[in-house]
Amino acid sequence: MEKKRIGIVGAGISGLLACKYAMEKGFNPIVFEARNSIGGVWSQTIESTKLQTPLSYYRFSDFPWPPSVTETETFPNHNQVMEYLQAYALHFNILPQIRFSSTVIGIEYFSPYNEDSTSSDLWGGNGEPFSANGKWNITVKVTGHPLVMNQVYEVDFVILCIGKYSDLPNIPDFPMNRGPEMFDGKVLHSMEYAAMAGDEASEFIKEKRVTVIGLRKSAVDVAAEVASKNGVGHPCCLVFRRAHWLVPEHLNKFTFRNLNRFSQLMIHRPGEGFFQCLLAFLLSPLLWMFTKMVEMYLKWTCPLIKKYNMVPDHSFLKQIVSCMSLVLPPNFHERVREGSLILKKSQSFSFCKNGLVLDGEDSVLETDIVIFATGYKSDEKITKIFTSTFFRNCITQSSAPFYRECIHPRIPQLAILGYPDSASVLYTTEVKSIWLAHFLAGKFKLPPVKEMEDDVTKWKKCIKRFVGDGYKRSCVSVLLQIHVNDQLCRDMGCNPTRKRWFLPEMFAPYGPTDYANLTRPS
Questions:
Q1: Taking Cα atoms as reference points, which of 324, 318, 365 lies closest to residue 213?
Q2: Using an 8 Å Cβ cutoff, are 298 and 307 in contact?
Q3: 167, HSE (Cβ side, Cα atoms, 13 Å)
């Protein structure tokens, strides 16, 4: 029987994992990577970027960090992360499967049946990964070779691993005559700044007045780096609209250590029964107490919060649930105190000839460079890859998570890895990659489409219960990650309880190493 062909788009963390586990099941996947190296966002980031996740939670289950890192670091820097990913790819012989400088410009599904037909009750017509008739065409443009024609590859299954934080920068719209066109300085996105080499970036900002827009990870990293290089002589200004809880590294590590089965009992989960709901209700005061204690601690240890009007209007728990956690780079507070980093909160602003006009301020914020660290158009990025309007609508009109966070019930022979937000994308994506490899190998079938859509709806209701009308993004599953992994294990026929006895099973944190050798009996 002819071996089915699998196409993987992207060679970041998700792409490496998808390729590795597909190879373990006997497939020969082909990976298309637009850049000339692996690593995804890690291959193109600013010099000072570090992990926000402790390395014990940001690792492959069967490939440890080298002792040179584990003995000295809790939050490795981007160079150490890249070296780790490269070592993983070499160890498992993934590189020969990757076609670099190959940009996927479109994928098209073709079948003798109409793609928008809802007559079948099963995913793809049979609930299996492959169809006798359905195929995907992947159109690839070879970058750097304009004379080479686009190439089309026919595959039986597609795994999208294109991530959310690259390629399509999100820059706010401005009224006419109030946008960047009025500004005499330079305007760019943090993506463009990150793409500069270290010396080029240093020269670009040297002795310049730089303003960074935003208060997420990329914003504080860029602002801290600019402030450290330019000093108090040319301070960097960080302009933000909404404050977030600024978490020090040691508190972030403590939070991860408390992600265990007992803490999950305090969280309402999708489709829970009466007793689970009652237990979560009875334990909810513990969760409230933890949240308030963390908030009090942050206000007490970080006087800058009150001084600069940076007390968030949301709880610490809501920030975790919405995957908006923000771990500060080293010496951030020191930069603010010494005056090399200036914080300004403003609900809106506009451009003028020599700078920015902030809402509520009379004077112009004079600046030479404005760097937008305002995120990416992740939904638009993933929808653009489909040539089919029907499939594009499947993505844009779905406000709920995918089934098992990687399968859309109405898009056959395709999975999406690394798209849902997570506090530790490597850990969560690896378990899903193992699950997907089992599915591709025919170890189980997907339930009927209606059952998958009902499951998706339950998750949507669960998300709304926590997030409400606040954040548009969500990663409720970070608090229910063990529950999610339990579901994946049961689908694969594996034992979901990964500890040896009751007490560690209930109170010890779960991490990547608990899912090493997942296919073997526990």
A1: 365
A2: no
A3: 19
With H, G, I as helix, E, B as strand and everything else as coil, classify residue 84: helix
Please write down the HEC assignment for all residues of 231-271: CCCCCEEEEECCCCCEECHHHHHHHHHCCCHHHHCCCCCCC
Alpha-carbon distance of 280 to 5, in angstroms, equals: 45
Mean pLDDT in the chain?
88
Encoded tokens for 311: 């007390």
Secondary structure (3-state) at 211 = strand
> Residue 453 belongs to what H/E stretch?
helix 449-467
- With beta carbons less than 8 A apart as the criterion, state whether 478 and 418 touch: no
Q: Which residue has the higher pLDDT, 270 or 433?
A: 433
Q: Give Cβ neighbours of residue 35 (< 8 Å, ≥ 6 apart).
A: 11, 43, 44, 100, 101
- What residue type is 250 in one-letter code? H
Three-state DSSP at 278 gives helix
Pairing between β-strand 6-9 and β-strand 341-345 as defined by DSSP bridges: unpaired
Q: What is the DSSP string of 499-516?
A: SSSHHHHHHSPP-GGGGT
Q: How confident is the model at residue 300 (pLDDT cuts 50, 70, 90)?
A: confident
Measured CA distances, 113 to 255, 344, 355, 374 (Å): 50, 57, 57, 42
Give the confidence band of 468 by pLDDT, cuts at 50, 70, 90.
low
pTM as predicted: 0.92
On whether the CB atoms of residues 349 and 359 are closer than 8 A, the answer is yes
Count of beta carbons in the 10 Å neighbourhood of residue 128: 17
DSSP 484-497: HHHHHHHHHT--S-
74, two tokens: 């809790």
